[in-house]
Specification:
Largest sheet: 4 strands, parallel
Structural class: alpha/beta
Shape: elongated
Strand content: 15-25%
Helix content: 25-40%
Number of domains: 3
Distance between the termini: 29 Å
Number of helices: 15
CATH topology of the largest domain: Rossmann fold
CATH class of the largest domain: Alpha Beta
């Protein structure tokens, strides 16, 4: 029977802290590209211990006085649609509010009641029902593609169909419906535009390229496309795509959001349900693969993005120290020369004394000087314990829900 506080084969190695002691995302840096509900998403991540970099990749421009929206609204009132498609909750509400401002609110609602209302997802359905209307159908996938398949399967020849756009044109849907014999009225309620201040997005891109971001989240396809477009403007698109392919973790709220990224062979993690909370839980579930755990000098050492855990206790490590630690961990137990470690330091340098200074601070931050061993006249090594058995996997964290 193994004594309490030990692992098989390593009686001097203390167990990590009991599960529930460290937030699951503590020590990780997460980029947030959302424009809407960015604060809510950031709070969910911070509650789980993450360091959050806010960098809106787009902005939403409402069009309450837009002539095109007004013209589409009046056209639908004069000749009510057979079918109307609500694609987003914010867009549908904005449309009704704009119509109210023109004195056309009730007339628009009457026109929509005269036909069949379809909703792309639950948020759109909620806005439709809040307006006093009844929806007929909504796809489980919350995708425009499934809405299109539903319409084409039912037949649309001779039908007048209103499609509420969600920030950008839907040319594929409009063309497919038109080719199938429908008359399509596009309803542009708001538009996606690049952010007014590009500096935060540029800083996030630079951090991703520098390898100092562990995960990045996307809540809309236009945000993903906007980030890639901005990188292209800076001549960094190919570099960014390579970085997003891993080991960085890319998390999207759903398949529609992921489409611009996956078209570039960028792997993404997605929740089963397209919700912010579900996306954050997906990130929590995937986070353990971003960490590496080693049995070192009688302790468990776990490397996270900008911090380390020693026996389950979170230790903040300076950037220079973290760079040294990662360099040592690439070859755990083997000697890494001072020259190699010097090249690993942020900004480099030509004085090996910088390595000694950073190493002193690293040992102090870890609280256990023996984790990194000095090998006289050769360099340093991570004091790996041979034959120490498997490292603990995940579970040693506290979720944002207190679990």
């Amino acid at each position: 029977m193994t004594p309490q506080g030990t692992y098989p084969g390593t009686p001097d190695v203390r167990r990590p802290a009991e599960p529930g002691q460290v937030p699951c995302l503590a020590g990780f840096t997460v980029g947030v590209t959302a424009a809407r509900r960015a604060d809510e998403l950031g709070a969910l991540l911070e509650r789980r211990g993450a360091l959050v970099l806010q960098a809106p990749a787009l902005r939403i421009l409402p069009l309450p006085d837009d002539a095109e929206l007004a013209a589409a609204t009046r056209s639908l009132i004069e000749t009510p649609p057979d079918i109307a498609v609500a694609t987003t909750g914010i867009g549908f509400r904005g449309w009704i509010e704009a119509a109210d401002g023109w004195g056309l609110g009730e007339a628009l609602l009457d026109a929509l009641r005269a036909g069949t209302l379809l909703c792309r997802g639950p948020k759109a359905r909620g806005a439709v029902r809040a307006a006093g209307l009844i929806d007929a159908w909504s796809p489980a996938s919350e995708s425009s593609a499934e809405v299109l398949d539903y319409l084409l399967t039912g037949g649309v020849e001779g039908k007048r169909i209103a499609v509420q756009l969600h920030g950008e044109p839907l040319p594929d849907m409009v063309e497919a419906l038109t080719c199938a014999g429908a008359e399509v009225i596009e309803v542009p309620v708001y538009r996606w535009l690049p952010p007014a201040d590009l500096a935060p997005l540029d800083r996030l891109t630079d951090a991703i390229l520098a390898g100092t971001v562990d995960a990045v989240t996307f809540t809309s396809a236009p945000a993903a496309a906007s980030m890639l477009a901005r990188a292209a403007e800076r001549g960094l698109r190919d570099d960014l795509i390579r970085a997003l392919r891993g080991p960085l973790l890319v998390v999207c709220v759903g398949p529609v959001t992921a489409a611009p990224l996956e078209s570039e062979d960028i792997p993404t993690a997605q929740p089963r349900r397209s919700r912010l909370g579900a996306m954050v839980r997906t990130l929590e579930a995937e986070a353990p693969r971003l960490a590496r755990t080693y049995p070192v000098a009688g302790h468990w050492l776990e490397l996270r993005g900008h911090a380390a855990l020693v026996n389950g206790e979170l230790r903040a490590v300076p950037p220079a120290g973290m760079a040294l630690l990662r360099s040592l961990a690439r070859r755990p137990g083997r000697v890494v020369t001072r020259a190699e470690l010097l090249r690993a330091l942020p900004g480099g340098g030509d004085d090996e004394h910088a390595v000694e200074t950073a190493m002193t601070r690293l040992r102090s931050a870890l609280g256990e000087a023996r984790l990194v061993q000095t090998v006289v006249k050769r360099g340093y090594r991570l004091a790996l314990d041979p034959g120490s058995g498997p490292a603990p996997l995940g579970g040693n964290c506290l979720s944002g829900d207190g679990r």
